[in-house]
Structures are given as structure tokens and as C-alpha cells.
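Hello,

Our lab assistant flagged a job as stuck in the queue for most of the afternoon. It eventually completed. Since we weren't sure the result was trustworthy after the delay, we are filing this so someone can double-check. Below is the sequence as submitted and the structure that was eventually returned. Let us know if re-running is recommended.
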Amino acid sequence: MTIHQTSLGRRGFLVSGATVAGGFSLGFRIPVGDGVAHAAEVKEINAWVVIQPDDKVVIRVARSEMGQGTLTGLAQLVAEELECDWKKVTTEYPTPAENLRRGRVWKNFSTGGSRGIRESNQYVREGGAMAREMLIAAAAAEWKVPATECSAASSVITHKPSGKTVTYGAIAAAAAQLEPPKQVKLKDPKDWKIAGKPLKRLDTLDKVTGKQVYGIDFTMPGMLVATVRACPVIGGRLKGFDAAKVEKMPGVKKVVAIDGNAVVVVADTYWNARTALAALPTDWDIGKLGEVSSETIDALLKEGLDAPEAFVGNKAGDAKAAIAGAAKKVEATYSFPYQHHVTMEPMNATARVSADKCEVWCGTQNGEAALAAASEASGLPIARCDVFKLMLGGGFGRRGRSDYVRQAVLVAKEMPGTPVKLIWSREEDMTHCQYHPITTARLTGGLDAEGNLVGLHVRISGQSILASLLPQNLQNGMDPAVFQGFAASGVEAAYGYAVPNLLIDHAMRNPHITAGFWRGVNTNQNAVYMESFMDELADAAGQDPLAFRLKLLKPKWAAVLKAAADKAGYGKPLPAGHFHGLAQVMGYGSYVAGVAEVSVSADGQLKIHKITAATNCGHVVNPAQIERQVAGSFAYGLSAALYGEITVKDGAVEQTNFDSYNLLRMDEMPKVETVLVPTGDFWGGVGEPTIAVAAPSVLNAVARATGKRVRNLPMMHHELKKGV
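-- returned structure --
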């Protein structure tokens, strides 16, 4: 097992990134026509690679960039096989409509579930390799020599016997007219020169100089701006509004109702639209939903813990019988609240709709879904619609949905030919999210006389994301995604503990608040439940939490936990008042573990000093990016663990802005040390897995420090003073 330790500091990364060559090209669109003529015109070698006469290499990336580094990572994989000069690489987005017109040559446009690299690595590498072979073949034909006598390196083709050379830019037009090879051989990762290296990100320069265009920045001639207010109670309806009260206000162009549950003001500026919307008298129908509160939701979930019927997600032996006959029984109930995505850029999209065309400019995690939403809302066939992706100011799963795209198109349809940018206010964004689902879990374990875990039952009660958003994907009523981190089979058989008698089941309880995909999704709460309870079981067995786990874990799970513990110095003396807590999980194709080091002052103030994280993601495409993904995931996960909570009163979400939904501050961020332990035998994700170990590793460390077990998040509600 190879161990890589990343050491490039965050400040060094930002400074060095400012010198990166290349840029980010927006609004790419390929004209449809004769393939050969078109390819020669734009120097397109294939769908993935465009080479300009000055040797600039444009790599097309279908996945979305939202800060995670997918754009650079995928470009590295293509460039590696292409054998091009990395200093001359830039990137651009193809559009989802062009993808459909070309038989989905770029395949999946969805960016979520940490799939960007792990699911597309094979075909993007093949795209780079095919382009390389076509360039070599074109040069060989010009020289009238066998292609086997030629090689490529750093955007130059060399005929080895004669020493002749030609640059990619000079031969690209000829290469573009050749048939692509049927098969290509990909490099062994041990021979990588571009992939696998901590290269500078391609999108940093424009970000630090303010040049980068996000959806909310986008503008075009004649554009109007709109903002929306939906019914404050999700599921409620719009009864009516008095447009006459605001139609004469400064800049107002139109007031429209959409989807039966929202009203929109269109104006010349966002401020004028927002001011008029705030003054608009509006009447809502919320019905019985107004009786729902956090307390009624909690009661609903509590009832599910004892329900006789539940969907079974993982089962081995007879857990209930084993627990009943165990020498010692341990039981605990945990809960996890609704949480918001808190993207720094609120939802927005710009749309222009005419009689025969619909165009949308936006940040989206799913370009094809956004295209489908545009087609449905405009009433035009997909062939007459397109979506131009812009950089996302945060996604975290929220921009995988296209409700804001649909709204923008519906509004623009009311003003034919006029581009309209719809911007959600922060309050609208906060109160009409698709939230991290609320769940609770009762865990019951049985230990034999020697302290061995002989039976385990995990009953989850709570919400299903699929029931909220994609009910057609339920499997005989069951949501398999509820069991993330607990599954025993399937594409991601994630449960790593070998327990002879096991039952993990789910009593589905769905309040009216919409549940959605939130970075890390159900792995987050399931890791809190399982890893916190593993510590409780270890305590009950009188065993060290690490040793207790290692007895039960399968090899890859155990190896990554051991790597994190070794690097953190687990079991060795710590500064006075400091304590360790650990957690592990397998998710999104990767094995991860975290060891938190915390202290709690006499007055109950928690300080998270350091988190050491180990990751086995199989292959490492850019170790520096993984380090930052891990650190970013802890910032996100710790914000949720300490402060993240959406509550409900009178059917509506209570939190409306950052004054009522707190985030981790810079001085609260612990030092993060990342250890990469890639085994090189699979492709895993890195954007989401480590979020899941943030909360349980800290919770377990807090329990060591205080003797108190926090079982209900967020932690801000708990008094950590000893003896209180």
C-alpha cells in the first residue's frame, strides 16, 4: 500500500494558482453541419479535444465545476493520454443539447455523488488517447512513414529515425479529418506524468482576480431581472395577489403567478424587483399544513421507532434473538435534523424564450435535467432548447434539481424574446430548499461475556429523499438510498463490520418538508449513528474503541482506519485536556476514516484542534485537490454538526438567513491533515465521503473529554460543562 502525504498549504495553493496558464471558456456551441468540414474549421480532433494553430489545447468537460476540482482533474486525465503540454491546456463546457445531437458522445452531464472522475475516467482517458493516435497518424501520413516510428510528448510529434518534429497545432487540421481508432491502449497509472500530480487548478486565476462569471453575474443586452416568492409553507398554494399595488413602482415591468404556488416581479434591476415584491399584497392557502411543527415531526418519527413494519436494508442471521440472549444489551437513540445546503450563490437562472427557441444560462449540477426542465416549461421540443452552463457558486446537491430553471423559463415565456434573470433572495433560498432529510435511529447491540458483538439492530425512522423527489425510483416502496453506508450488496456494498446477526431497517415517515440530496446524503447521519454507537459498544465491552472496531472491520475498512489512527498518534500521550475520537465509513466508492483531537474548557467551550483523515480512493488524480476536498468537507461537515438545523413552525421553515442559520467561522476550523492510502485497484470519489466522519469523530472525542454522549445534533444545543 502506497502512502502519500500532502503538504502544500492553502495559502501556497492560492498564490501559486494565480500563475496558472489558460482560462475558462463559456458559451461553447458547435454548429451543426458537415462533420469533416466542421472538424477542420474548429480543429476538433474528437469530442474531447480541440487544438488551435498556436498549440492551445481545449479540453471539453461535461461535468460541472462547483469548487471541487472536477474540471482540472478530468482535464488532467485527458491531457495525460493526449501527451499534450499542460501549460497550454484550457477547458470549456459542451452543452447538453449538443450532447443529445451527437448521440450523447460526452455521456453523463450529472455532477453529484462524487461521480465526476470515478464514473467518467475510462471514457475521457480514451478520448485523449484516441486524439493522440490521430495526431500521430496524421504526422506519419505527411512524412510517409509508419506511425509506429513516431511518438508524442508535450504537444510535439517526433519521427524517431529522422528526428523530424511537428507541433500539434500544425497537424491538428489534418488529424481532424481521420477516422478515430477503434481501440486504444491506456497508460498504466504508474507511468502518469500529468495525472496523479498536484498540478495547479485551471480555474483559480479567474476566481482570485474576480474575472470568473457565475450564474448570478451573467448579463446580456436588454436583460430584465426577476425575483420570486413562493408560498411560505411548502405544499401550500397561491390564492391571489394585488398586482395593481406595485405595478407603478420604479422599474417594475410585470407581475406574474407561476406554478400555482408562487408570484414573481420582473423589473429593470434586482433591487426594484425585490422592493416591489416585498410590497405586493399576497394571499396563501396552507390548509392543515399550518399545524405542522418540529414537535409534531419529532413525534411522527418517534412513532416509527416502534412500528411493526419496516423496510429491511441489511440482514444477517437473527439479530433480535441474538440480542435477547446476549450477556449485555446496549441501546441508544440518535437523531439528525433537517439541514440546508447554504450555497453562497442563491438559486438563479437566466432564460430567453421566443416562439421557436428557449435558451438558459445557469449553474447546474445536471445539465440534461436542466434542459428537460427548460423544454417542459417552455413547451418547446428539446431540439429547440439549450442550456449554457456557468460556474456554480456552490452546489452540494442543491443544484442537481432544476426547479429554479423551470421558474426562470416560465417567467421568460411571459416576456417573449426578452432575456430575464431570475434571482432567489437569500430568504427564498433558505426557506424553499430541498433539505437534508430528518431521521432518528434506535440502535440496539448485544455483547457476549467476552465483550464480542453478537447482534446489532439499527431501526431508522424518517424521511426518504426518493419519496420526496423521485418516487418512481422507489423499489417496492423502499428507498435504498436510506441505507447509504449500511448496504451489504450492490454497487457500493458499504457496510464494513462483520456482525454475525444484523438487522438494519427503515420505517419511512415523510413530513411535508421536501427532502433532497445534500452533500454526503444519507451517509452523514448513518455514520453518526453507527460510529457513535460503536464507541458506546466498546465502552460497554470495556475495550478501546480502535481495537474494538479493528476486530470487526473488513480489511480495506480496517486499513484506512489504522492509517488515520497511526498518523494522528492515537493511543499516544496528548497535551493535557486533549482527547481523541475516531470514526470510519465507506461511501461513494472510497474508504475513509477520521481522528479528531478536541478539548473542552471548564466552562464548556469546545475546541476542535485537529482532524486527521485517511482516504483510500483507489486512484489519485490530483493529491493537492484531494487534500483541499477533505479540508473543505470537514468545514462543511463541522458546520452541520455544530450549528446545522432547520426547524418548522406553523408549517413553515423558521430560518431565513445567516443570522438564524450559523456556519463554522475561520477561527473554529481545525487543522486538517490528510493521508492518502490509494490501493490502485478501483476508482472512488472524494468530494463527499469524509464529510461523514466529521461529526462522529468529534462526538466521540467530546464523549472522552466530558463523559457526556451527545446523541442529537446540532451540538449548539448541548451543555458540555462537566457535572452539568
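-- support follow-up --
The delay was a queue issue, not a problem with the job. The result is valid. Residues 307-339+435-717 form a domain with the Aldehyde Oxidoreductase; domain 4 fold (CATH 3.30.365.10). The longest helix spans residues 121-143.
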